[in-house]
Automatic annotation (TrEMBL):
Residues 1-149 form the PRMT5 arginine-N-methyltransferase domain. Residues 153-320 form the PRMT5 oligomerisation domain. This is Protein arginine N-methyltransferase 5. It comes from the Eukaryota. InterPro entries: Arg_MeTrfase, PRMT5, PRMT5_C, SAM-dependent_MTases_sf. The keyword Manganese does not apply. GO terms for biological process: methylation; regulation of DNA-templated transcription.
Amino acid sequence: MDNLESQTYEVFEKDPIKYSQYQQAIYKCLLDRVPDEEKDTNVQVVMVLGAGRGPLVNASLQAAFQAKRRIKIYAVEKNPNAVVTLESWQYEEWGSQVTVVSCDMREWEAPEKADLMVSELLGSFADNELSPECLDGAEHCLKEGGMSIPHHYTSFLGPISSSKLYNEVRACREKDRDPEAQFEMPYVVRLHNFHQLAPPKACFSFRHPNPDPLKDNNRYQTLEFQVDVNTVLHGFAGYFETTLYGDITLSIRPETHSPGMFSWFPIFFPIKQPMSVQAGEKIRVAFWRCSNSKKVWYEWAVVSPMCSVIHNTTGRSYTIGL
């Protein structure tokens, strides 16, 4: 898994909605876990997994202050450049309340178990930044009955028509690759010139802590969409919704989009051959989330009104490294 660059962190940290929602989720969780009579003696262990440059550490500290509850934080981060910033924060602002850990969360042997794991590992399609694998791998650090924020997330997929997007993908052809490889990978895009052919539907869901004794994050789903106009299908737009804690949510799905949030754009899964669709016909798509010991990838195929090829078979054009 690659490390983020400095400017990427800066974009994330400027999102006002995202971190206020996280703070509210942590605040509610601390109030639920620690009754008033224990507020001076019960110290909740909070692990911020993938702490970046510290925004979730600050949100946790502010939530604890707001809730009048005591916490102890482990800020776990594998990017050595971000760790330098965390250590500076710890020295200048946080003090002994925060311990900075330079480590991959999946490999960390924690000195104690957490009451609460907090992370911001979601991508535009929910699981496409490997949040399920990372959090499953860190679950050995969580107490029995401990909580994860986010608690649950779901990806959504909807058919779209956009000749502009299709042509831009076609222009991404690379000299030394299969001539159609660019149609076998998703693109994070700010959607402008497009037509959503039907409302997006839920695709893959994940929950933390993972209730499954045998943790398997491979998925298969078929979705069907009713189309009301004559149109051309160029691919599928992906979104996500997450429940952080209780009724505190974040969403980029158009119907429920968190107002003012800009950390994520939608994701676009193209198809190689545009497909004519008549009013009244149904679009049916099959979607797979696949993995092996080293990587994760998606495969997708339209199965109605006509059959397309299976895109990105065996991850031949696009994978996400574990």
